[in-house]
């Protein structure tokens, strides 16, 4: 069934064409993102979307301020576990011009948004410290650039190149009541610290019967493919931590998300592993609120509403999915014959999981019960991945509503090859092929 289509699609390479961009109106009582398909009003012809031109990114001040779930933290001091303010959400005054007292935004890429989050933490939490390999110098990706000059080398400092040492030191700091933000320079090298993270950090509160905890500990680590990283600098190890009860795992997709989720992670009363897709450090650019705000952990975001198919992902593949959906609606000449006409106007619901553990299964189940079909996309290997867990949960909770098996488009169960990086990653055509196969089941 459609195997000839599948093989043909997987042999082809996509090329630039046109797409439809949606716009919508909003009100304070209904803060719906402008890119929700259900509210589309106008069509604008533009090239195939990339990270630089993605409609998933917020390029205006108004869109940035309308970020769903955004929680303002205007207090002068905010420490781990601090309760939220009484009126933290968007109000009419926030939308006024900056000169009239409205909220300010500025253009940031993802690494500068992450740096901004750590700067706010160091300023508002006097017990906080940032440390790791090359952190004092700004780090390989410049996320800590200038923080040592601003806050002093007793609070922002280098450590020896030993991941288990960094993790153990962070656990000790957190156990003594400090707010510890530890950087492990590449997620590929997190495995020497695996025992410390899984057996010590994640279980600390449980094994002490709640008398002690290391909830003020956050591990930051660059992850995922960058285009030339090979087997030791391209891995996505998030699934290894799914069974580490007591540990939260977060993967942001953009600057606004990175800043808000990192501030929430640092202030969450549980240890958090914050994985930062390194390819997005400079390529993802948005207007980001300059003030202090948080975004909710363990809460998925519906980026696009739909009724026919649910696609769930996180991090960089979201932009690849956007390209695949564009190809579905506007197939290039070489694949037009392979895209059924009746699927070109498919209504797809796109979900960003954001928190990998514990993930927001309720949002996913609600969507799949509506659409009856689901595809999961991620860069990590297929076996034992996040997609495996999601597929099992969806099958268990939505069995009577499913019209097709849950599709999984992932990396391969091989080491991440340098010369074959493009073949390893889920691309637009693999995703497009899975969409057609799921809809034609």
TrEMBL record:
<dbReference type="Pfam" id="PF02780">
    <property type="entry name" value="Transketolase_C"/>
</dbReference>
<dbReference type="InterPro" id="IPR009014">
    <property type="entry name" value="Transketo_C/PFOR_II"/>
</dbReference>
<dbReference type="GO" id="GO:0006091">
    <property type="term" value="P:generation of precursor metabolites and energy"/>
</dbReference>
<feature type="region of interest" description="Disordered">
    <location>
        <begin position="13"/>
        <end position="34"/>
    </location>
</feature>
<dbReference type="GO" id="GO:0003863">
    <property type="term" value="F:branched-chain 2-oxo acid dehydrogenase activity"/>
</dbReference>
<dbReference type="Pfam" id="PF02779">
    <property type="entry name" value="Transket_pyr"/>
</dbReference>
<dbReference type="GO" id="GO:0007584">
    <property type="term" value="P:response to nutrient"/>
</dbReference>
<dbReference type="GO" id="GO:0009083">
    <property type="term" value="P:branched-chain amino acid catabolic process"/>
</dbReference>
<feature type="domain" description="Transketolase-like pyrimidine-binding">
    <location>
        <begin position="108"/>
        <end position="283"/>
    </location>
</feature>
<dbReference type="InterPro" id="IPR029061">
    <property type="entry name" value="THDP-binding"/>
</dbReference>
<feature type="compositionally biased region" description="Low complexity">
    <location>
        <begin position="14"/>
        <end position="34"/>
    </location>
</feature>
<keyword id="KW-0560">Oxidoreductase</keyword>
<dbReference type="InterPro" id="IPR033248">
    <property type="entry name" value="Transketolase_C"/>
</dbReference>
<protein>
    <recommendedName>
        <fullName>3-methyl-2-oxobutanoate dehydrogenase (2-methylpropanoyl-transferring)</fullName>
        <ecNumber>1.2.4.4</ecNumber>
    </recommendedName>
</protein>
<dbReference type="InterPro" id="IPR005475">
    <property type="entry name" value="Transketolase-like_Pyr-bd"/>
</dbReference>
<keyword id="KW-0670">Pyruvate</keyword>
């Amino acid at each position: 069934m459609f195997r000839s289509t599948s093989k043909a699609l997987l042999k082809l390479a996509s090329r630039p064409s046109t797409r439809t961009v949606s716009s919508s109106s909003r009100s304070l009582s209904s803060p719906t993102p402008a890119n929700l398909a259900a509210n589309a009003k106008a069509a604008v012809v533009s090239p195939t979307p990339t990270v630089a031109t993605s409609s998933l990114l917020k390029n205006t001040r108004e869109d940035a301020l309308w970020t769903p779930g955004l929680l303002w933290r205007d207090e002068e001091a905010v420490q781990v576990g601090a309760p939220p303010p009484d009126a933290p959400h968007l109000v009419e005054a926030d939308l006024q011009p900056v000169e009239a007292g409205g909220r300010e935004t500025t253009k940031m890429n993802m690494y500068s948004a992450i740096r901004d989050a750590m700067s706010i933490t160091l300023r508002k939490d006097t017990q906080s410290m940032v440390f790791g390999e090359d952190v004092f110098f700004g780090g390989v990706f410049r996320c800590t650039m200038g923080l040592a000059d601003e806050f002093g080398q007793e609070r922002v400092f280098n450590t020896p190149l030993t991941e288990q040492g960094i993790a153990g030191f962070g656990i000790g700091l957190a156990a003594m009541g400090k707010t510890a933000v530890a950087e492990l320079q590449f997620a590929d090298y997190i495995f020497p610290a695996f025992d410390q993270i899984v057996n010590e950090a994640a279980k600390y509160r449980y094994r002490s019967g709640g008398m002690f905890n290391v909830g003020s500990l956050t591990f930051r680590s660059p992850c995922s493919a960058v285009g030339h990283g090979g087997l030791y600098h391209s891995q996505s190890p998030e699934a290894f931590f799914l069974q580490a009860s007591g540990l939260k795992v977060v993967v942001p997709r953009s600057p606004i998300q990175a800043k808000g989720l990192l501030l929430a992670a640092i202030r969450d009363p549980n240890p958090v592993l914050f994985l930062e897709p390194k390819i997005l450090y400079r390529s993802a650019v948005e207007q980001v609120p300059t003030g202090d705000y948080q975004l909710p952990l363990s809460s998925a975001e519906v980026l696009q509403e739909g009724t026919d198919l649910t696609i769930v992902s996180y991090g960089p593949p979201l932009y690849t999915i956007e390209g695949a959906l564009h190809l579905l609606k506007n197939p290039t000449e070489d694949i037009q014959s392979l895209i059924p006409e009746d699927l070109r106007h498919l209504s797809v619901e796109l979900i960003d999981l954001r928190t990998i553990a514990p993930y927001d299964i309720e949002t996913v189940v609600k969507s799949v019960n509506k659409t009856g079909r689901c595809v999961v996309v991620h860069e990590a290997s297929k076996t034992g991945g996040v997609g495996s867990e999601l597929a099992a949960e969806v099958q268990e909770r939505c069995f009577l509503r499913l019209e097709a098996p849950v599709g999984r488009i992932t990396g391969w169960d091989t080491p991440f090859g340098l010369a074959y990086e493009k073949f390893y990653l889920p691309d637009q055509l693999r995703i497009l092929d899975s969409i057609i196969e799921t809809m034609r089941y």
